[in-house]
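Predicting holo structure, magnesium ion bound.
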Amino acid sequence: MAKSAKYVYLFGNKKADGHGGMKPLLGGKGANLAEMSRIGLPVPPGFTITTEVCTYYYENKKTYPKVLDAQAREGVAAIEKIMGTKFGDTKAMPLLVSVRSGARDSMPGMMDTILNLGLNDKTVLALVAATKNERFAWDCYRRFVQMYGDVVMGVQKGKNEDHEPFEVVIHGFKHEKYHSDIEDSKLTAADQQELLLRFKALIKERTGTEFPQDPWKQLWGAAGAVFGSWMNDRAIVYRRKYGIPTEWGTAVSVQAMVYGNTGDNSGSGVAFTRNPANGTKEFYGEFLINAQGEDVVAGVRTPEPVAQLDKQMPAAYKELDNIRKTLETHFKDVQDFEFTIQDGKVFMLQTRNGKRTAMAALKFSMDMVDEKLIDWKTAIKRNPADQLEQLLAPIFDVKAEKAARVIAKGLPAGPGAASGKFYLNADRADAAAKEWWMDDKGQFVLNKHGDKLKQPVLLVRNETTPEDLRGMIASEGILTAKGGVSSHAALVARQMGKVCVCGAGALQIDYATKTLTADGVTYKEGDFLSINGTLGNVYAGQLPTAESEIIQVLVQKSLDGKKSDTYTKFATLMNWCSKVTKLQVRTNADTPEQAEEAVAFGATGIGLTRTEHMFFEGNRIDAMREMILADSVADRKAALAKLLPYQKGDFVGIFKALKGLPATIRFLDPPLHEFLPHEDAAQQDLAKKMGVPVEKIKQRVKELHEFNPMLGFRGCRLGIVHSEISEMQARAVFEAAAEVQKAGIKVKPEVMIPLVGFKRELDLQVAVVHAAAKAVMAEQKVKLNYMVGTMIEIPRGALTADEIAQTAEFFSFGTNDLTQTCLGMSRDDSGSFLPSYAELEIIKTNPFASIDQSGVGQLMKIAVEKGNQSRPGMKMGICGEHGGDPSSVRFCHKLGLNYVSCSPRRVPVARLAAAQAALEDEVGAKPKGAKKASKAKR
Ligand code: PEP
Ligand code: MG
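Done. Tokens:
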């Protein structure tokens, strides 16, 4: 049973039972309706049924608490009192309500809404009589039956249907009577009545039941549909993508209807208090005259920019502009709100923090600090860490874009540049994105590291609906022919950080022939198109992309930072992060270039150099193979001697690039067979090169074969059995360190031994390292400061961390291996079943992307505690892929680690996440000096 017996919270008439802080109970929508009502904004009265009812509903075979009916009736009575109308009134103006869902976090387009509830064959006549507006009344009823039939009674598009059944009826009727697709607003009252008859017949035919006439039956049907939609496929997909727990449930808001479709002095709109695409401080949004709210977001009619309202309804525009300011001053964040104008009077239907691109988030946060709306610490929190990578996203090569053929123009709805093979259907786009990318000659397309790439895909639709979500996730970018900047496509794309162009009206899409015609040319599915979501341009063909301004400034050094507003703001944010962060951010880098890039992004050193990657370059692989094929220690040493200069050279480069920052260098880790060729031709080649019989190579490959190489002869086991390998690596580290130090550059080598599970393993390897260091220092007559530590990446290492810490001077958690060994799931093979695990909610997030805090996290916690027992205050960090994942970074902060290490381009993400984690500790502490910080650093 739920704890509280109060399930219904009223709002309206500048009062409310709830408030904005009650999102868990009232949902985001319900809580903010209450808050807007409290601060005196024009909110139509209503009530919210709490999320506890949703939980009850699912725990009690889809039934409601007994007291709910009485509380809902009181709620309706309260609305009736304020509105002066009665629910179900057949004589005078009837009270009609909207029924909407609202989870704690907004889930745009994911849940279903019903408008004009309370209409039936009798109340519609009362509405006609009261409003003297026949067209309006019948339009409302027709819309209601359509929505109710779809959402509550389930009359929806079947698998083999291309269009919604109600839309098919409308289309058929329009062509029958008008021989064209006239706008809905041109349909007469008689037309609406005819459509109603056809809709009711459709409902009866598809469901076997009549459309319900009793308003209370309608209300409970609608509430049940909202609760039911919490478990529909698209809500589940959305929750999985954004990590929203199923337990939260949704609330239901029931609110008196106001009408944007009474005529040309009415309308509905969706607006943002600032531009959510690029962050500009302007009243941004769109509206439709003579329309209900759903028309604006549905993307069927292309709305007008909200600025036009100033000319068409100046008084309403002025009021909305004032509301826009009130909202920002009160909520202290950019708001995304819905409004309706009924006969010139403005009503607020919803407000919430506006979804925004990373670019907009950055600008909002900086501007609001300057405007003294928020302080700089709040500004840090306002930038979603998992979106920050968008700022580093590529843009089109300027020259290529200028030369490209613009085939259509649309609204710039999601910034960035995307090129891909276009598909007109979400499932086909999803499937195509899983295919390898082949060029015209049938060759695999490779990235610069030689890895095969999957095909880039663009999803192109007339308009998207939530059913298209999977296809949208799979696509690089989304292009629609209809709809505006707040259409479903735009909202979802922005949130996912996808490039998006909306409402490119010149595109003629033919779903049947799977073609798209624009500017006189017909393109077929699978052809390349390119879109610029910052400008709204659509181009034919594939365009090369260029790096973002931040990359141009920091990495390519081809742009002066002072000339880039984006870079300046980014740098300010990063500076603020440095002021509060406790957790340092290092990088995983195997080359001087990677190290330099990461340092430019603010990395404070290298947390992991995987030395094995260095042996794949050029001639080194030959020496490496010679070493592996050697029959004796002497032969192996001879081969290793050839590798030494290469390895030393690598380390010299890295030390120089780091300019005194620490470098954790990990000794050889993968099983040796990874270095040998497995295909016949390559084996023949190698045999010839080395002057050995090919059989010898085949034999060695066979000997090195392992059933579970990940649990086999790898990690420190290699250096223990063949200590000469570690000896060579240690010598290379210290000879390089001596050389660089002599050249006047500080060096801080940290030698790291992988896959340690026993203290004795580490002891043996540490002895080799110290011996090499001693020898090199004596030969070179230098004193080197270095550390020797270990990775903690198998459970035994974590569980015996107190013993291991007696030898290890530092720990670095290898969370990739720690995850695979703790979960007993191969990091390379789990792709075959993890998607099913996610679907079945066995796991909430991929444990190889985000630390499994309750499992792997416990091992880490034990290791931190035990390590500190033996070596108080010892340096600890993490270098698995999780180091760039915001929620894992937060977890590492809580564990008290000293640093996380991640790939260079994720360094800013990790820095932001680390600063935000530090700020979470400060909750309640008073932030200070916003102005000082912003002036000082910019
Ligand atoms: C790890 O296991 O987390 C790690 C960083 O090492 P690797 O990925 O090289 O096994
Ligand atoms: Mg590892």
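Residues 608, 610, 669, 793, 814-817, 879-880 surround phosphoenolpyruvate (ligand 1) (CB under 6 Å).
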